[in-house]
Amino acid sequence: MATFKDFRNKVKPNWCPGCGDFSVLAAMQRAFANVGLEPHDVAIVSGIGCSGRISGYVNAYGFHGVHGRALPIAQGLKLANRDLTVIAAGGDGDGFAIGMAHTIHAIRRNVDITYIVMDNQVYGLTKGQTSPRSEVGFKTKSTPYGSIESAIHPMEMALTVGAGFVAQSVSSDLKQLTRVIEEGIKHKGFSLINVYSPCVTYNKINTYDWFKENLVNLDQVENYDPSDRQLAMQTLMENHGLVTGVIYQNKEQQSYESKIKGFKEEPLAKQDIMISREQFDKLVAEFA
Amino acid sequence: MVKQLSWKVGGQQGEGIDSAGEILSSALNRKGYYLYGYRHFSSRIKGGHSNTKIRISINPIRSISDELDILVAFDQETIDLNAHELIQDGVILADAKFNPTVPEGVNARLLVVPFTKIAEEIGMAQMKNMVAVGASTALLGIDADSFKEVIEERFARKGQKVVDRNMEAITRGAEYVRSEVGNSFTQFRLESSDGKKRLYMIGNDAVALGAIAAGARLMAAYPITPSSEIMEYLIKKLPEFGGTVVQTEDEIAAITMTIGANYGGVRALTASAGPGLSLMTEAIGLAGMTETPAVIINTQRGGPSTGLPTKQEQSDLLAMLYSTHGEIPKIVIAPSTAEECFYDTIQAFNLAEEYQCPVIVLTDLALALGKQTVEPLDYDRIQIRRGKLVGWDEELPKLENSELFPRYEFTEDGISRRVLPGKKNGLHHVTGVEHDQTGRPSENPVNRKKMMEKRLSKLKNGIDFDTPVYLDAAHEDADLLIVGFCSTRGTIHEAKERLEAEGLKVNHAHIRQLLPFPSDIMLEQMKKAKKVLVVENNATGQLTNLIKMNIGMAEKLVHFGKYDGNPFLPSEIYKQCKELLVHGHI
């Protein structure tokens, strides 16, 4: 059985010292081992940005695509080979700006993949511009007078478009983060995990200390019931979205793959693709 | 008695124009006639003039004709817009309901038939289109029984009563016209056909069928005219083969999902038209850079921007060849008949896996939607070649010390072994960033240069595509070479036949492999001709310029463009050729 060490490779991340993404990487590696996966069972599809490099830092299959498109690539991959554990990963710009349409539709579609967003509320790799997750008033190189656009609230958004698994965590809580990722992987359908992953270079507001003061850990809230969608929405609104843990999970929801007519358990990529003469003749006869 | 004629039915969109054309042509196809049908339609669902023109022949045809013999009209607008196409003594079959008149200057015979009234008597006014089909058969000398099979298949699920009523509509339409013109009226009577069984399909059907035959099991696409029929066919059929179609949120998702699926090891495709292809451009570069196979169908339509969404054009050519930023290996092939759409789509999937790169199958609206007779498709020609794909049953040596599999290993032909995710001991990285042989990002200049050369060298020595150029070029010393691509094949052929009947020596080259460009073949053909006329549905001469760029001989090259939204007519090409041969220019 693989341990989290088997998911490490020799590549040194090019992240800044102290970057929240290091914890996400460690949590992912632990989660894979904890759910009993082998490196070749896992494929990580990532976007562009600091966080997008994560697919290259795990000893597993990795596909580092184009900006904002990790989700459609990941869904295509999962449909091709449903034996794989497919993780999509990227930053808040990737998922909630350029790729927002894909995020919403991936939630609706509900292909069984896990999407981990490393949310630092700023653009890091392009050296400090505003993100759709930046709060109003947030000053960056592209918003020198402070951001005047309202921030996206991904968890509320996910609930309104019908998500079956909505969770949030923070880089400083490796234990919870690992567990949330494990649960996301085990969930049969699309899982959205937003991780507050502080940018120590370009975000001096939403820092580790800031999160320590402002986050409410739902694991410690008595009687919190993640199967109650209304409660989930209410809790998010009461806390300005600043909660961690599994916020909502619908265990009854069926994945896209399980609803496709004629879709087999055997992965498409492993099936024989040669058409038989009988099958061919039948198709052709319709054009006679 | 005639060997061929053209029939057109027109009215308001939604009046059963399409199904009238469908039923007439299906029945005639089954009798062994060759057909070519072209729909004129607009970007709306109900209302607006729409027509279908069908050419019927006892010999193979792949083009609309210049003239029209019979016009079936459900409204005066149809007559006003189309009667000028009619030959001297052509016939207009028009519904009595709108008191039809023949416009001034048109020398056609008007036969007023109570289409609507007969249909109402049978019990359903909307069956007026079947009355019109019946009326037409009386002129063509085809008996109503020939429609039995087609009507039964089409309406069986609606019950025997509907079948009977439709047959009655056809019979009564025929009887009415026969009593009007008499049995001795043979002006439009068709000579007998060879009675052989052939297929009748649009290019999009053939592409979709080709995809299934090639083993494609996943399609990701966003609806767009004129490509949607491909996804609509595949969503009906793929479940029988364990596969499916995903209707994505946009074309960017369609192409990236296609790339993800191909990376995962299933043969997957997407299809779109110009606007969609513009959106896909960045991701096509990703497929090139990551050496991931991907098959992309582009059914060209009128551009730029939204352009003419339901009209013919061939103006995406250079964009398909060059639009991705940076330099990647890419293959662009262009079938010119429905039959080729089938075989070329199969080849596209093989090429994509053999050369590990994106393959664009370029068609155009006239080919995508034009319905044509196709010789029986040959099962034995279906081949599946997957290149250097490592099979699931092949064992790979253990990777020690978190090493990676050399997915991008430098090889003689530039093509490396491809391992699918999920495979034991095959771990590697894939990235659109420049990378080393295991796929890890690398900015090392030596590696960068070698990697660029590796990728581009894959196509350097040509590709394994069966017919890079279709040639009908018997003359060693030709007066003229006509060059085209996609749907113009049949039209050019007819123009060539007319010129040759006048004693001119004309060759025809239809380019089917646009990238890599078949320079050797084209150079040889151009050397043999005094002049070269490039016929293309665009304004700027994209194919002309492509030939110039690859071969030169600018002094011989003449561009003949048409970009009004309509396909070329044989007479237009004929006239331009004559002009060029007589005056040396057009």
TrEMBL record, chain A:
GO terms for biological process: cellular respiration. InterPro entries: 2-oxoacid:Fd_oxidoreductase, OFOB, PFO_beta_C, THDP-binding, TPP_enzyme_TPP-bd. Residues 199-264 form the Pyruvate ferredoxin oxidoreductase beta subunit C-terminal domain. Its cofactor is thiamine diphosphate; [4Fe-4S] cluster; Mg(2+). Keywords: Iron, Iron-sulfur, Magnesium, Metal-binding, Oxidoreductase, Thiamine pyrophosphate. It comes from the Bacteria. One of its GO terms (molecular function) is iron-sulfur cluster binding. Residues 48-195 form the Thiamine pyrophosphate enzyme TPP-binding domain. This is 2-oxoacid:ferredoxin oxidoreductase subunit beta. It comes from Thermoactinomyces daqus. The lineage of its organism: Bacteria, Bacillati, Bacillota, Bacilli, Bacillales.
Automatic annotation (TrEMBL), chain B:
GO terms for molecular function: oxidoreductase activity, acting on the aldehyde or oxo group of donors. Keywords: Oxidoreductase. InterPro entries: 2-oxoacid/accept_OxRdtase_asu (IPR022367), PFOR_II (IPR033412), Pyruvate:ferred/Flavod_OxRd (IPR050722), Pyrv/ketoisovalerate_OxRed_cat (IPR019752), Pyrv_Fd/Flavodoxin_OxRdtase_N (IPR002880), Pyrv_flavodox_OxRed_cen (IPR002869), THDP-binding (IPR029061), Transketo_C/PFOR_II (IPR009014). The keyword Nucleus does not apply. Residues 478-568 form the Pyruvate:ferredoxin oxidoreductase core domain. Residues 210-452 form the Pyruvate flavodoxin/ferredoxin oxidoreductase pyrimidine binding domain. GO terms for biological process: response to oxidative stress. Residues 14-175 form the Pyruvate/ketoisovalerate oxidoreductase catalytic domain. Pfam families: PFOR_II, POR, POR_N. The keyword Oxidoreductase applies. This is 2-oxoacid:acceptor oxidoreductase subunit alpha.
